[in-house]
Amino acid sequence: MNVRRSAAVLAAATAVICAATAPVVAAGPSPSASPALPAGLYGSTDPTYDGVWRQSLALLAQHTVGVKPAAKAVDWLTGQQCANGAFAPYRADPTASCDAKVMVDTNNTAAAVQALAALGGHDAATGKAVAWLKSVQNKDGGWGYTPGGASDTNSTSVVVGALAAVGNTPQDVRKGGKSPYDALSKLTLPCDGDGAGAFAFQPDKKNSLAANADATAAGVLGALGKGLVVEAGKDGATKTCASDTASPRQAAANGAAYLTKALAEDGHLKSALPGATDQPDYGNTADAVVALAAQGGAARAAKPLKWLQRNSAAWAEQSGPAAYSQLIFAAHATGADPRDFGGVDLVTRLNATGPAPKTVAAKSSDEDAGDGSGSGGVWWMVGAGLAAGAGIGFLLSGRNKRRRP
């Protein structure tokens, strides 16, 4: 997942493929925001399909590393909410009412909930959003990208993260007697055959399931009841596939076993986009690091983490705030230093893609501020009240989470 995209809107498909297959350029200072874009928005590219997603991830990542976002950045996100509580990918005129032409969706709504819940002080907004999410839950217990759409692993998992972020117990959120875990269990592959233990995105037209690495990274977190921001789980958690997928924790272990095998050779996952299958999928690899750390401990994610530290800088520079956020989530989940991630200060790079934050975690004195590289060691912060936050946050390589074949 090139910064994981949620099930993409069909009109965005061409743009997504072009972005994913474009040549990677050398990393350098992040471009300043376009004057044509809202002042509070992170990123300088067209926000039509990922504005709320990338803003949510950016704010969540900043909070996770002790950065207090600019008020106008938070206000921009809250201003995108519709009266019914839902969020669309982007509303150019947030003062206009959300009519039937405004394509609200579960992924952007759930991501916004995770960010606003972590920041605190937005109970009214998150309450309305969660109420809307519950109102569009499918009878199988899951969620699709759009209201009424067939349940998929990515959408169900990002909503699980939103529910957990506001203190709800996902198991207790039911429709037709079914919980999100019931929906996820139906999207898992058995422990024999191709894709053993993986999650599928959705059944195909023949109701068959195909392993999907992007969905599997999401499904592991969803089955664990977690979101985009996680603490490392206990080392030594089950590492083999077992048939008891009725247990959410076993389904998570099975998915993690699949990811471990997929990462074993190269340390990274490959793109599933047509014409780009030989290219690394940096975003999906970052999500896999988070999933593996959550399920089996930081050591289990060591190989793909090292690969990201060596290779992800140019991708993140090209992809923008959501990519930097995904890497920060990977660093946080494994205890790595987000200010010296393979020599790159992810926090400074992320902050540079939008309005200057109110408060920034401190750098060590011998860190090179010119190129964003760090001195290594344990990162630290100054200032009262800058506790690192968490909540889940999951899915799309810029997310609009993209649907994979």
From TrEMBL:
Alphabetized Pfam families for the sequence: Prenyltrans
Keyword Transmembrane annotated: yes
Signal peptide: 1-26
Keyword line: Membrane, Repeat, Signal, Transmembrane, Transmembrane helix
The Prenyltransferase alpha-alpha toroid domain, residue ranges: 55-166
Transmembrane segments: 377-396
CDD domains reported in the protein's UniProt record: ISOPREN_C2_like
Name the UniProt record assigns to this protein: Prenyltransferase/squalene oxidase repeat-containing protein
Organism in which the protein naturally occurs: Streptomyces cellulosae
Lineage of source species: Bacteria, Bacillati, Actinomycetota, Actinomycetes, Kitasatosporales
